[in-house]
Amino acid sequence: MTNELPSNPKHFQSEPDNILELDISSTKNLQIGYHAETVFLLPSESSLLVIKEYIGGLSGTEYYAKVNANRFKTTIRYGRREEVNRETFVEVFLPENWHGELSLSSQYGHITTEHDWEFERFAAETNEGAITLKSIKAPRIHLVSPVKGIRLEKAEGFADLHSVSGSILARHILGGGKLATSGGSIFAAFSSLNTIVECNTLNGDIEIALPDSQGMKIDGITKTGEIDAKPEGLTLKIKPGNVKNITGILGEKPFQDVRISTINGNILLR
Questions:
Q1: How far apart are CA 269 and CA 217, in angstroms?
Q2: Which of 26, 30, 137, 202 has the greatest number of C-beta atoms within 10 Å?
């Protein structure tokens, strides 16, 4: 399962149309939203937030990002747009010592980072783009990508990941999470658990890797698919309508609930 970016918009423009610099040292909550631009999150080489806008040659202050800031919250939104241009992008250079609440959004573009980050809270949302992240540490990680899906290499915290027709790939989760999609598949590997896990899809397979030597209460169900469970000690039952349900307890107390559900897909536990 892969959620690759369809193309790299950096191929289309080498020089930014606008550069924005802000001191966010006192900002607790930072919200950055764009239209069709792919958002690249990068570490800043200075103590300032720097945003470089590559917006297809648009020139004039009405096209540049608008800033609304008070003592604790800073909101940055894209300027005037006359069309959906998927070849545009922005580079968000964030100071690595800033660990507040960060929210990134792009209506039609992708959101991506290849770096490790730590925040008080992290959210990323796109309507038609993909979300691809390397490593996020935050008590709550909220990602929404209805169409293209989500790829998250590492999450430390509660991973709240949602799609509709896309797939969800989370390779290394420490904490817990709620992963849900309708028309895609789910793959998640949990290295440790300290809270509930819920994985739900309608028309896709679910593959879950569970941590060794940790207490868990397992409850998995599929209506038309098959269940393959590697851990010993689980019980598979066939219910009316050929519904398959696997349940059981693994490890020792305290137990964390692991709930898995698909309608037209298979379940693999390992």
A1: 13
A2: 30
